[in-house]
Amino acid sequence: MGNIAAKLWESEYVGYYGEEIFWKKGNWAPTHWHRDSAYLPWAGEDWCNFWIPLGDMSADYAVQVVRGSHKGILYDGTTFNPKDPTNPICGEAADSPRLPDISADLEADPDAWDIVSFDVALGDVVVLNPHCLHAGGPTDEDFPERRNLTLRFFDDKSYYSAHRLDVPGIFDHREQIASAAGGFLKDGDLYRPATLQANIQRRD
Fold first, then answer.
1. pTM of the prediction?
2. Domain-embedded: residue 203
3. H or E stretch at 154
């Protein structure tokens, strides 16, 4: 996967950040709209999620993305409160504005947001920037089980950001990340953690 990221970015350096495994079974509502970088100390252009389906699914059940939203407003995160999908993590303390209620907007007007999603099959990969607003599909009687894997990568336009605030009960302390150069990463530093290994990927 690293060589694919290298070709997408035209970069020789690709770092692997980590992975997440998702498994929904039964009747589950869609995951609320959010952007991953609201929760993580990331800044810069070149971060990517490789969203990998572990089975066939239609676009209605796959990941959905607001097209081009990584270049737009970087909204605050959501606490994923089912009663209020826009309930903010940082609120007035954040530099980022509160999330709009994208689901409500789309219910009132299906063209309110430019949404992109794909029918996917085993072997496909959807690549998205984690600054993008995105949401996961539901499971229901017609599609009772959804499994997918997400892998995350970064490169030479990826930076550490100190935007994440202390939020009791959610973020109990601001994350400090040891730097490969010694000390801790500071706001605006090139993202080079001491604890994460990066590989040099040569483009063909």
1. 0.86
2. no
3. strand 145-154
